[in-house]
Amino acid sequence: MHGPSRLRLPGSAAPPYRPLRQRRGTLRLGPTQLGVSRREELLAQGHTDWSLRTAVERGELRRVARGWFAQPTAQPDVLTALLAGYRLTCVDAAALHGLWTPHRGPSEQDLLHVHKPSSGPTAPPGLLVHSPRSRTWPEADAVASLPLALEHALRCQSGETCAILLESAIEHRLLTPTAVQELLDGAPAAVRSRIGMLSTASDSGSETRVVRWLRRRRFHVEQQVFVEGVGFIDAYVGGVFLEIDGRSFHSSEDAFGRDRRRDLRSIRHGLQVLRLSYEQVWHRWESTQEDILSTIDEVGAFGRRKVEQLAAR
What is the mean pLDDT of the chain? Predict the structure, then answer.
C-alpha cells in the first residue's frame, strides 16, 4: 500500500508530530445507532411481552418485522429493509458505519443494497439484493457489520468505489491495513485487479479518486507533503500541488479564509497549487481531468524546479 510522503519543503523543515486520528464509527451497529431492536434485546433490558404490547399501543415502539421493534427515531432505510425481510449491506451499510461514500447518480440514489440468507420472492422496487452465500443469517444485526458490508461491496461496486470505501475504513481507524488486505485476499482475483493498489494517506473519497486516477496514468504521486508555514498538502504530482475538497457542502467563511492563507503561503514559496472542489471532482470529473493534465503541462516544469530547490535547502 502507498503511504504518506516523506518529502518536506524545505528539506530542513521538521514536520510536527501527527497524532493518530480518533476512531470514527463502529464495526457493528446496534439499537443506539439505528433505533431498532430485536425482541430478545428488549427482554434482556427488562421488558416483558406485555410491556412491549403496551409500548406499541402508546406509539413508543412499532413492530416492523417478526421479532423486531422500532423507535420513532429509527433510521428510515433500515426500516425499509426490515419491513421487506432484508438487512442493509454494501454502500448503504458502509455509510451508516460512518465511511466516506462516493456521490451516487440519479439511478442509484433511491436504491438500497440489501441481503438475506435465502432466495425468495422478487424484491420490492428500490431494493438491490445481494446473492446469499449462506442459508442462515450470518449476523443478528439489522445492518451488516462493516467487514460483511465491505465483503459484499467488493463483489458489487466498481474498483474506484471499493478503493474509496477501503481507504476510508483505514482513515477512520475502523480497519487496519492488515485487516483490509485480508478482505482483499478473500476476494476473487478479478476484484483485486479491479481495485489495484490502495493508499493509507487519503483523507477523503475525493482524494482517493484523484490520486487513484493519476497513479493509473503512471504519474508518481506524493500524498500529504509537508510544507513549512503551510502544513500538509494533499498531493504533489508533476510539479503541481493539489488541494482536494472532500466535502459536498461549501466551506465555512473561516475555512475559506484558512484555505486562502495556505494558498498565499504556498505561492510565496513559488509552489504551483491547484485547488479542486467537490463539484469538480464528482460533477465535472471529465473536464477536471483535462484541467489537471493541462496545469501539469503548463506550469509543471517551473513547479518541479521550485520543489527541487526547496528540497535541497
Answer: 90
